[in-house]
Design a protein that fits this description.
alpha+beta; 133 residues; two-stranded antiparallel ribbon; 3 helices; 4-stranded antiparallel beta sheet
Length: 133
């Protein structure tokens, strides 16, 4: 597919069944030369790495965390990544369906995600609930 791939270790924090979960993650960051290659890669991922599908491999995801920027492949929905630097080159990232950041000072970047994230992302709390008292 002509992609360049980097692997990045990250700490993830996410909500599942009403609880906050933390996980060590290995993220594959891929750059493609053509939008058609993004489409092919997305179809390969959906065919092999989504739990519950007949062709899924062991260890597949229940909700694949796929983020696409710079292209609009079919089967994705618009979202935004809102970034807040927290020091020492690190940042907190909140992904939501709204293009407006939940807190002042956050930089927003458009991206695309899989539709299975719509329910999770629609529950991002408003800024008033995120501020410290």
């Amino acid at each position: 597919m002509g992609a360049t791939v980097d692997l990045v270790r990250r700490a993830g924090t996410w909500r599942w069944n009403g609880l906050v979960r933390r996980s060590r993650e290995l993220t594959a960051v891929c750059w493609f030369r053509h939008p058609a290659a993004v489409e092919r890669a997305l179809q390969a991922l959906l065919g092999r790495y989504v739990a519950g599908r007949p062709s899924a491999v062991e260890g597949s995801w229940l909700v694949p965390d796929v983020r696409v920027s710079g292209a609009e492949p079919s089967g994705t929905i618009p979202a935004s990544a809102h970034v807040m630097p927290v020091g020492q080159g690190e940042a907190a990232v909140v992904i939501g369906l709204s293009p407006e950041p939940p807190l002042a000072g956050m930089a927003s970047h458009p991206l695309r995600v899989l539709p299975c994230w719509a329910d999770h992302l629609s529950r991002v709390r408003p800024a008033a609930a995120l501020t410290r008292e």
